[in-house]
Design a protein that fits this description.
alpha+beta, 434 Repressor (Amino-terminal Domain), 2 domains, three-stranded antiparallel sheet, 21% strand, globular, Cupin_2, DNA-binding, RmlC_Cupin_sf
């Protein structure tokens, strides 16, 4: 979803151009519908990360557009930082890439975290970490930067498992609270109680839901096989 920047009056074109120039100098960016200037730094990083994920999966833009059911021109603009996706579009892209909205958003914002850089240590306090949609609930990523695994705290209350997910990376689940049904398609269904854990290899179809009323709480670790 793109916010248009400009003046509806023809006499305002110069003012709009000057505003874009001032915005670029200040580092804030400006939302546009076309051109060579990124909407903002975060959008530019998000586009670059989507391109990185796509190339790592060996997909062309046309192939990703088909899998995500989005237009090729839109994805091309998105990867160049010239368009901002809606949450629905980002979910489609994430599914097509075997990732998630929160992983793409976190990857796009990690470099904006003060003091991270090339540090060997990543500290995430209790109220910190990127948060957003993941599966049928909300997840919080518990690490910053390029690491070999992605630990997440997950909370959900969905009683329906929804659609299956599949990605190339291994994944590990540990139930902190609640009763959870983990459905691995042909590999079986598993009822997990607090303290139970399950691991499944990359490429396994998977989904999960609550077996009781109320929320459930998971600790998830997902393998990361490629970086930026």
């Amino acid at each position: 979803m793109v916010t248009v920047c400009g003046d509806p009056c023809r006499s305002g074109r110069r003012r709009a151009a000057n505003a874009r120039a001032r915005s670029a100098r200040s580092g804030r960016g400006c939302a546009i519908t076309s051109g060579s200037v990124a909407l903002d730094e975060q959008t530019e990083r998000l586009g670059a990360r989507i391109r990185s994920f796509r190339q790592a999966r060996g997909l062309t833009l046309v192939e990703l557009a088909r899998l995500a059911q989005l237009s090729h021109p839109f994805l091309s603009q998105l990867e160049r930082g010239q368009a901002r996706p809606s949450m629905v579009s980002l979910e489609r892209i994430a599914r097509a890439l075997g990732s998630s909205q929160i992983e793409l958003i976190a990857a796009a914002t990690d470099d904006l975290v003060p003091g991270e850089g090339d540090s060997r240590v990543s500290l995430v306090r209790s109220m910190e970490g990127p948060q957003g949609p993941f599966g049928g609930g909300e997840a919080r990523i518990l690490v910053h930067g390029e690491v070999s695994f992605i630990p997440m705290e997950f909370r959900g209350s969905n009683r329906s498992p929804g659609e299956f997910y599949r990605h190339d990376e291994d994944e590990f689940l540990h139930v902190v609270s609640g009763r959870v049904l983990v459905d691995l398609a042909d590999d079986g269904e598993f009822e997990l109680m607090p303290g139970d854990s399950i691991h499944y290899a990359g490429g396994t179809l998977h989904r999960w839901c609550s077996l009781a009323e109320g929320d459930y709480h998971l600790f998830i670790v997902k393998e990361r096989r490629f970086g930026s």
